[in-house]
Amino acid sequence: MTKMTLPPAFIDALPVLEKIEAAGFEAYFVGGSVRDTLLGKPIHDVDIATSAFPAEIKALFDRTVDTGIQHGTVMILDHGVGYEVTTFRTESTYTDFRRPDDVTFVRELREDLKRRDFTINALALRADGELVDLFDGQTDLANGVIRAVGEARERFTEDALRMMRALRFSAQLDFAIEAQTQQALQALAPNLTRISVERIQVELEKLLQASSAKRGWQALVVSGVLAYLPGNVDWLSVADVIAADLKQARLTSVAGVWAYLVVRLGLTRAEISDFLRAWKVSRAVLQTAQAVADFYRTEQRDAWTYYLVAKDAATLLEVLAVWPIVPIEVAKKQLAALPIQDKAELALTGKDIIQAGVLQPGPQLGQTLAQLETDVVLGKVANDYDALMAHVGGKG
Ligand code: ATP
Ligand code: MG
Structure pTM? Predict the structure, then answer.
């Protein structure tokens, strides 16, 4: 049995585990936080698993919230930050390849660890630092291997999302996918179409933002899973070029991921709308992706081209780092040189023009302001009250 020194995030949570243990139940740290601690990586959320049933947990602590009570999860608020505590459970009969029909609470840790997806995610750590590793997760961690717990084919048949998770962990951890697990991916890739888009979306976004995104992408291609991703597009035609791009730089945001994909897929505006709606991405991301795609589609890029994407400059630069259709330094200079980023920054307003008696309210005023905006952006006139007033024929 391995004994571990607990990192600070676990030490802070110890009162929760100790209280559960003092009441005669078992409690362990589980999941990603244990895996990441063993890898020496920072941990983001501390998950706790226990033999106590939800009602028993709620009786032990003063302040709890039923965050996922039907799955056995209760949030405990007694000790600083909230801690999610989940009762050991098994998941039986997956008839739709994605959600267990029902969960059964159990008292044995082993049963709970058995239903977890990969050996590296099936580790449990006790308050005293003792590590429970029933499936050789430590060996796989040391060797950099993603291996399903038990029979990979069974596990992916129970829940097809696990296939995306395998690929995503490969990208995040720079791990290889073990042979049986890989074979199961190849055999069961078509089942991915039964998984909700929202769940696949999250995994693809994580995969493409991972430090080893190229590895994850190649695993997605080789496993055949790529062909079953949502969106009615020809993924395979861009598979190689995407792998090559991902060597250049990292994508670092959700908007960056989608903007990059639509430009690489070479989609039209209408196709982008359909594609991103099929993926159920937010409106804000859709708009940003359209702006970046417009920029890529343009043949001559002048100040106006940069102005149109100024609001989305961060995403543009992110995508340019991966696929520099213009050198990134050129783009940065052009963006920095823009006299204004938005028409609200014009030093002359419609009100000013009316008050000066140059124009009456009406369509012509709108046209004049639009022309001013273009002329300022293109550097034909300075963004200065007097210069702009003179430009529209007023006295200033
Ligand atoms: P991350 O660092 O992304 O949070 P994680 O391993 O903590 O990684 P979560 O999605 O937070 O992943 O899930 C927590 C744990 O629950 C996992 O480590 C794994 O043990 C288990 N788990 C999550 N999703 C599944 C699934 N689809 N099938 C089986 N076990 C799962
Ligand atoms: Mg987690």
Answer: 0.94
